[in-house]
Amino acid sequence: MANQNTVPDELVDLLTTNILGHVSCLTPSGRIATNVMWVDYDGEHVLTSSPVGGRKGRAWRLNPQAAVSVVDRENPWRWVEVSGRVTDIHPDEGLAFINKLSQRYTGGPYSRTGEREVFVITPDRVRSAAGRR
Q1: How many domains are contained in the chain?
Q2: What's the CATH code of the domain at 78?
Q3: N or C: which end of the chain has fewer CB within 10 A?
Q4: pTM of the complete model beyond 0.90
């Protein structure tokens, strides 16, 4: 099991294919809330999004702590867990980000309307396992 602050190259596919992420934040009451979400990785940050004004955005504006985990569907001993902070929240201009993820996860354009925002999570710690040998 690796422990560092970047995702190992051999596990990047877990964050850049159609594997769903488990994304956690702290609610205003201090509880941990975990949501199954579409995720992406830009080589340095984990990215995800939600509608503007949603609970996740409100929570991360109050407390930027975040955690994301992904598990390989074919080999559950191959996984990545990222703990860090939401260091940027920006509009999803033209829904470009969510449309990119929708193509990846569903094979088609995003089917909903409304403003969305993108959350940029900067890792403080990455734990991972490349599977059992």
Answers
A1: 1
A2: 2.30.110.10
A3: C
A4: yes
